[in-house]
Amino acid sequence: MIKRLADNIISPLGFSTAANYEAVRRGESGIVPGRDAAGTLLSLARLDREKLADTFRSVFRPRERYTVAEQALLLSVHYAVQEAGIDPADPRNGFVLSTTKGNIELLGDPGHDLGPDRIHLWHTAELLGRFFRNPNTPLTVSNACISGACAQIAAFNLLKDKTYDHVVVAGVDLASDFIISGFQSFKSLDEDRCRPFDARRKGLNLGEAAASLVYGNASGSGSYLLGGCIRNDANHISGPSRTGEGLYRALSAVMGGLSPDKVAFINAHGTATPFNDQMEAVAFARAGLEKTPVFSLKPHFGHTLGAAGVLESIISLRALEEGIVLPSPGYGQPGIEGELNVSTATTFTRERYMIKTLSGFGGGNAALLFEKIK
Amino acid sequence: MKKITSYCRITDTAVILNGNARDIPFSGEPGPVRLTEIYRSLETAYPKFHKMDNLSKAGFLASEMVLREAGYDMETPDGTVSLVFANSSSSLDDDIKFQHTIEKDNYFPSPAVFVYTLPNIVTGEIAIRNRILGETSFFILREFDAEKMQIFAEWAFASPGIGHVLCGWAEYLDGHCDVLVMMVERESPDGLDFTTLNIHKLYFDQHGNFDFRP
């Protein structure tokens, strides 16, 4: 098990974990109406570019130009390592980057002067290490929507191997025209705010965020990642499986012998696409978790892709620490076949365990098991 | 000691299976044409192949040869095999293709192109083809790194119930193909020791000079 030492979220709801968590507790959402490049209506959670650039400038006084994704990533990591009280330059500290598309916006700007390597995900990772004067090459995970869980599992392994004393997991993705038009072509975007698990759900909203988690081999009271598991459906590259095979297998592996009634809640992937949410319900029931409270954070942040697993773990850990189960916004009419306990109001819990799940393109599914120790 | 029981290397100029260069008629044109030539040489019927992007095709072909050589039963769902892949340019080859479909005066984004703008889709394609229900992971490295590949595979072996890891480097960009796929087994009487040095040797032997059989 590895201990959470600090974290940060940069999202439309705020630039600190506290600001984001409080906004979630108040039921706020960063999702607002907008249009895609072709003028079609959609709703999305976009970062305030100006506020981000201003904050980035005042914190770092940079001499070079950084892309929007880099600014969000570097700022988030900075706040997280500062809170952890660790020196990011120390060779005993390592980084894991979680992103699906990184600087993909540069493809639509062929005249940019940032060099041909800037588009590469390994470049974003190396820039992160260099920026904080860390001599190690950060690891990059790009495993579609489950990347944020995979990156935490990588951190778990790096700490177990004693490769590092601390690992900073950082996720970032933007709602670029590239991403929006792609999801639009799949017809998987909801024009309005998404409604996970609800009968009226029509699709997802995209979101932008950077999020960072600092882990270490430490003990004492606090929150711990006990383990994680990734399993594939072997069913379809872009469609969830009807049997929830991969997610069921990932859940079974992380739970081991843990009784389902010990789990305070599941923070589901809950994208609000018809097939994803149904698949998750099937997998939860197969794993004996049909009575465990479930909520999705997507109605607050949208689907933040490579940042989602990190951001949603951070918010869920705050809730676990506070001893509450968050409500799943937008849920009113049951829209799932089979049993599923969607959380509809803030409730108190005495349980110590929490599960985070993610599923994505390529058939990947991931489950993480966390525990709070008093 | 874990063993590499089968491997395949595909470059622009060579296809090497278990230390032997495969004699596949070569028109001289690298890229998509070459990938189709390799596919034809396998004498297999898998129509989905033609829908894949070049990265998925390249990884698929190498995995197909490796799994056949290993006598893998692709009909039975198997939760004991994991797929751990890495490359340098992610899905940039297909990203560029998709970008062309969303240019201002030619806006017509296609889901069939978009779905391949993620590097891990190649592991999904291989999992579907072979009904592999273990882990699928994808990492990005600036360049091939045998030590990292070994570490990633070891992590996958540490997950419950995993006895085999199909470990691969699958790089495809701008007509150039660079693939190494290895079947690694936890318990096998024969095969090549799964060490960083051996992985390095398999990657850099581009002419089939490596004596694979122990």
Brief rundown of the structure:
The complex is a heterodimer of chains A (about 375) and B (about 210). Chain A has about 375 residues and is α/β, with parallel strands linked by helices.
Characterization of this structure:
The complex is a heterodimer of chains A (374) and B (214). Chain A has 374 residues and is α/β, with parallel strands linked by helices. Chain A folds into two domains: 2-216, Peroxisomal Thiolase, Chain A, domain 1 (3-Layer(aba) Sandwich), CATH 3.40.47; 222-373, Thiolase/Chalcone synthase (Peroxisomal Thiolase, Chain A, domain 1). Helix content of chain A is 31%, strand content 23%. Chain A has helices spanning 17-25, 49-60, 68-84, 121-131, 147-160, 177-185, 245-255, 274-286, 298-301, 308-322, and strands at residues 2-10, 32-35, 41-45, 93-98, 139-141, 166-173, 206-207, 209-216, 222-232, 263-267, 293-295, 324-325, 341-342, 347-348, 353-359, 364-373. In chain A, strands 5-4-6-8-1-9-16-15-10-11-13 form an eleven-stranded mixed beta sheet, with helices on both faces. In chain A, strands 2-3-7 form a three-stranded mixed beta sheet. A two-stranded antiparallel sheet of chain A has the order 12-14. Chain A is globular and about 55 Å long. The two termini of chain A are 15 Å apart. Chain B is α+β, with helices and mostly antiparallel strands and 214 residues long. Chain B has a single domain, classed as 3-Layer(aba) Sandwich (Peroxisomal Thiolase, Chain A, domain 1), CATH 3.40.47.10. Chain B contains seven helices and eight strands; from the N terminus they run βββααβαααβαβββα. Chain B has helices at residues 32-41, 54-69, 92-100, 111-114, 121-130, 146-157, 196-204; strands spanning 3-10, 15-17, 20-21, 81-87, 136-140, 164-173, 176-185, 192-193. In chain B, strands 1, 2, 3, 4, 5, 6, 7 and 8 form an eight-stranded mixed beta sheet that branches. In chain B, α1 runs parallel beside α2, α2 (54-69) packs parallel to α5 and α6 crosses α7 (196-204). The two termini of chain B are 14 Å apart. The relative contact order of chain B is 0.25. The chains are: A alpha/beta (374), B alpha+beta (214). At the A-B interface, α4, β5, α5, α6 and β9 of A face α3, α5 and β5 of B.
